[in-house]
Amino acid sequence: MLRDNHNRDINYLRLAVTDRCNLRCFYCMPEQGIDWLSRADLLSWEEMERLCRVLVAHGISKIRITGGEPFVRRNLMPFLEKIAALPGLHELTLTTNGILTAPHIPALKQMGIRSVNLSLDTLDRNRFFAITRRDELPAVMNTLDTLLAHDIAVKINAVVMDGRNTDDILPLTALTERLPVSIRFIEEMPFNGSGTMHSIAWHHGRIMDTIKAAHPGLQKVQDGPYTTSYNYRIPGHQGTVGVIAAYTRSFCGTCNRLRITPQGMLKTCLYDSGVFSLRDLLRSGATDAQLISAIQDAISHRHPTGHEAERQVTHESMAAIGG
Ligand code: SAM
Ligand code: SF4
Q1: How far apart are CA 316 and CA 184, in angstroms?
Q2: Which of 28, 140, 164, 172, when mutated, tests ligand 1's pocket best, judged by the most ligand atoms within 8 Å of its CB?
Q3: Could you tell me the residue ranges of all domains in the chain?
Q4: Nearest-CA neighbor of 74 among 117, 42, 51?
Q5: Which residue from 91, 7, 11, 16 is spatially nearest to 58, judged by alpha carbons?
Q6: Distance 318 CA to ligand 1 centre (A)
Q7: How do residues 286-304 score in pLDDT, each as one tens digit?
Q8: Domain 2-321 classified CATH 3.20.20.70?
Q9: What pLDDT band is residue 197 in, cutting at 50, 70 and 90?
């Protein structure tokens, strides 16, 4: 029901519920953190619920909750329960760093969440500390085990960083032998909150060449219609391994996403700087019809790809966007 000016169906919402986080991944934010939004600047749970309800009534069938770290915002679980129950929503899912997640997994399962994206860039505790500036690898591994024990599908997001974790590409790939997980190596994007990154040394081709050299029998698997990851299986392995060309942007042609940032900016592309403030529109007393009409107008002016949407070097942190 929502279609953009390039004839792409828009049926997937990524909703960032906070910019705060209990890690300080260096590719996402500086060590001291970012200028956190005040509570009044954040969308309230009620405002987010209303936006979800209106969007689901107009064809959004999948919602991903992201952040910052979703589990650091109080009252996430009651919000998820309400969203999970929206008629017409086929999939509710989350992206999490896994630190506070484990105790909530039985409740996530109960509300029908079938898949979770877990961020994990290394299996080495020292490298984990160097990347995230926190010593939390055991908590993340516990979340991984608990998700699998509850039969929740796990996609592992690993950002590949030159000189930081390229030695982890093969050990992370090897996890697919004994675990039914989908590992996706992500090209590093320029959203570290300081505007300092302009190019990448490890683009998708180089990542895949590294995996193929170690596993020449790698087989392509059939990807879904809106996939951003190109996935493969090593014969005999339970899981899959893939790559997300997030920086070189090879998948914009099938992009079906809308993004809402923690402060309620609507983004029609990860690389745009926000199209308009849904929060201001909500707080001005807009009706549901006015909300959806403003969103439809925004997607009628969508850039064809992220290269066109990206106008300048950004100082944004990914935690303020949601990934
Ligand atoms: N805190 C949660 C987490 O880390 O899973 C959710 C939010 S985080 C911003 C969402 C995803 O964006 C994570 O998988 C993270 O690895 C990825 N990400 C953050 N900064 C990135 C960057 N500069 N380049 C590529 N991916 C990035
Ligand atoms: Fe936090 Fe996720 Fe950003 Fe890491 S990537 S600092 S876990 S928001």
Answers
A1: 23
A2: 28
A3: 2-321
A4: 42
A5: 11
A6: 6
A7: 999 999 999 999 999 998 8
A8: yes
A9: low
